[in-house]
Amino acid sequence: MIVLSTDRLSISFGALRAVDRVSLEVEEGLVFSIIGPNGAGKTTLFNVISGLYVADEGRVLIAGEDVTALPPDKLARRGLSRTFQNLQIFFRMTALENVMVGCHRHEATGLIADLLHLPAVLQQNRRSRERAMAALARVGLASMADQPAGGMSYGALKRLEIARALASEPRLLLLDEPAAGCNAVETEEIKAIIRALAADGVTVVLVEHDMRLVMNVSDCIHVLADGHTLAEGAAAEVRNNPAVIEAYLGVHGTREAALAVG
Amino acid sequence: MQDETLTPAARPIRSRLASLRRHPLALPAALTVLVAVTPLFLASSYHYRIAALVLIFALACLGLNLLMGYAGQISLGHAGFMGIGAYAVAIGPAHLGLPSWLSLLAGAALSALVAFIVGRPILRLKRHYLAVATLGFGLLIAIVLTNEAEFTGGPDGMAVERMQLFGWTAKGTVTWYWISAITFLLGAKLALNLIDSPTGRALRAIHDGEVAASVLGVDVARKKLAAFVLAAVYASVAGSYLALFNGHITPDVAGFLRSIELVAMVVLGGMGSILGSLVGTAVLVVLPQTLTVLHDYEHMVLGLIIICIMIFLREGIVPTLAAALGARRS
Description:
The structure holds 2 protein chains of 2 kinds.
Chain A: E1 2-13, E2 16-27, E3 31-35, H1 42-49, E4 57-62, E5 65-66, H2 72-77, E6 80-82, H3 95-102, H4 111-116, H5 119-138, H6 154-167, E7 172-176, H7 184-199, E8 203-207, H8 211-217, E9 220-225, E10 228-233, H9 235-239, H10 242-261
Chain B: H1 10-22, H2 26-37, H3 45-70, H4 79-96, H5 100-122, H6 127-147, H7 149-152, E1 158-159, E2 163-165, E3 168-170, H8 173-195, H9 198-208, H10 210-215, H11 220-246, E4 248-249, H12 256-269, H13 274-290, H14 298-312, H15 317-329
Antiparallel strand pairs in B: 1-4, 2-3
Helix pairs in contact in B: 2-8, 3-8, 3-11, 3-12, 3-13, 4-5, 4-6, 4-11, 5-11, 9-11, 12-13
């Protein structure tokens, strides 16, 4: 089943066409990576898909339903969740509370009930806490549950964001450079988490610069350059695609690389 | 994290103390004890009067703190809602023949409605723009209260009938101390309930990152509006109490200076601190009274003290002291 698809999606900022007629289809349960040189439009594409930007043209479909131009909170309620390249952590809350916000789309108590702490609210709090603890455990942060997020290390915060996104039990998880700024050990941890998610059947769309990580975990790779699609395929196909190599290294670099290799 | 530095024997006691402090009923219990014990130190009717004023303004600050300290939205016109509440209990009995308690509820409902209508467009604005828009709202209310002299008595204000409940008349400073105390405790408990609920977590999330909150399914505009309406109701009830307590009301209750005073109380006591709402209010109500002994230098010294508090207790009195206490303990 196709969980996410875009149909000739485009957005411009002034004269710059940041995303240019990008069409892609993401199969349920797979790890789908989007790569490309800096400024290729990967994060912009994420922002359009998750409702932060509104596309100029084209459509976004989740499980076949047109969700183009829906606001982020409505998209979240349809099972889309994401993390951010530059962390978006609730720094004044504890790790657990951060993740409990991730449960928000499953919480259905009203303002009056919340004020009065009706039994339904207490029950909801308990359920959210359990769900959040389970999500923290999945990324290996269960022991830090009660720590203020403001005092956690960068690598832990990266995983905290994933846990928060997971707590919403998304059918589709968008990870925007989860390993950016992480050291080798932290990158390994991220890799293990993505693997585990894939094994659990979560559909993951990944934007990442760390090629070893991408090649390692992806079922399908979509390459962007200057806002448009350059290639798509399995890791091996993409890696050997001359157009992709050229986009990353430039014509001159490609010649050098060919000389060096061969 | 720093627990490793403790001796093994000390750890369980410390953690038991810490968990006691974290217990959901710890703060309500402490506040109850505080307001129950305070009368032991109140020697005169004047003292009771000051204490009641502290509690009434603290009630308004509780609501404003939910808006500012938790949801992260400023309101520089919040006294406007105090004005609506105050004039509701003045006009209701005088012109409409409604009992005071019903006028109080009607005022709260009207404040909620006004906040709901005004809040929708206003809360789309951010930071300075929101500040200016709310400021405008407060001025508007004050002007209406001043100009509609036929109903409000104009700049001179109007007398407020005593509140009667089942033939009993609420009057006297001691009575009002207890009425405000019980209402404040109730308001604090509701606020604490809210903070530890899905709505409360959503509000705190909005404060730290609107984008991240919305991506997690939080309807940011709706939650902000809920906080604004709630803050309006708190302020309205506080305004009604103030009017009923004083027996007389002028448009100053809704004035710009009052709004600023409310914001100062919240910031001074500590944004996002329920106890801070009470402490900040206490400082700003009690201090000017005690400083009158300084005569001409009163305002200068008050200003200096506020500046010093903000410099040395940057996060507000309660959060800064709590952090210092926490650091010393562990």
